[in-house]
Amino acid sequence: MATRPAGDLTDPAGTAAGDAGTAAGDAGRARDDAAVLTAHAVRRAFDDRPVLAGVDLTIAAGEVVALLGGSGSGKSTLLRILAGLDAEATGPTRLRGTAAVVFQEHRLLPWKRVGDNVALGVTGPDVRARVDRALAEVGLADRRRAWPAELSGGQAQRVAVARALVREPNLLLLDEPFGALDALTRLRMQSLLRRLRAQHGFAALLVTHDVEEALLLADRILLLDEGVIAEEIPVDLDPDHPGDRPPARSPDHPAFGALRRRLLDRLGVPAA
Ligand SMILES: Nc1ncnc2c1ncn2[C@@H]1O[C@H](COP(=O)(O)OP(=O)(O)OP(=O)(O)O)[C@@H](O)[C@H]1O
Hints:
Layout (H helix, E strand, L loop, with lengths): L2 E2 L2 E4 L12 H11 L1 E12 L2 E12 L3 E6 L5 H8 L10 E3 L3 E4 L11 H6 L7 H11 L15 H13 L5 E5 L7 H18 L2 E5 L3 H7 L2 E6 L2 E7 L19 H13 L6
Parallel strand pairs: 5-9, 5-10, 7-8, 8-9
Antiparallel strand pairs: 1-7, 2-6, 3-4, 3-6, 10-11
Bound molecules: adenosine-5'-triphosphate.
C-alpha cells in the first residue's frame, strides 16, 4: 500500500513544454487539467538497459485504463513510478488527489488483525467507522478481528481492496490485483471492482496479463511495447442496451470477441 498527497511528484517544470500557443497544445492542456493523473516522457533504465523509453499517459477522473504488454515490457515498473515508489525514474508525473495501490500479493501485516491492517496509517476522525464501512463494502464486515492467516486468498485480497478504499482514493493503481486467484474468485473480484467503481467513481490504472479482464473492466486499453505506449484502444462496449443478449461487456458478445482477437493478435498470441 502506498498513498500520496496531491501535487507534483517529479520535475513538473517539464510539463507541456514545446506546445505553447498551438491549438493542439491548448487541447492537450485542457485534457491534462481534467486528468487525475498525467505523465510525460517517463523513462527508466536498469543497468543502462532502457525499459521505459518515454511513456506519455493521461487518466481522466473516473476513467479505468488497463495496461497490457508482454512479460517484462515494463508494466509494473511504470505502475511503481506512478505510485511514487521509484525515485530513479525521470519524466514529470502529476497526481490530483489521492492514489492507493493494490498489488498482486495482499501485503497484509500478519501480526495485525484485519481491521488494524485496513486502519494502518489512516488518520482523521471516525477511523473505526470508516474501516468498518470499507470492510462491509468488500463483503467482510464480520472479519474485522480475524488474523490475515485465517483468510482465504480471495478474502485477503478483498482486505487489500478495503485498505485502499478506506483512503477514499480518486485513483486506484492495481498491479495484477487478481492474478494470484483462482478463476472463480477472480470473476467475483472483477464484479466487486466494477460495483465499487460505479459507487465511488474512482479512476484506475489496471496492470493485467488478462485480455478478458481488461475488456471487462476498462474504458481504454494501452499497450506497452518497446518502452512506449505503442497503441491505445478504446473499449467501446458501453452502454449495454437493455435487453441485449448477451450484454456487450461479456465474452460471448461478437464485439467483445473481435476486440479480444485484435488484442491477442497485437500481443503476439495466436488465435486458438
Ligand atoms: N529492480 C530492478 N532491477 C533490475 N531490473 C529490473 C528491476 N525491476 C524490473 N526490472 C526489469 O525491467 C523489465 C520490466 O519489468 P516489469 O516487472 O516492469 O515488467 P512487466 O511488464 O510488469 O512484467 P510481467 O508482466 O512479467 O510482470 C524486466 O526486464 C525486469 O527484469
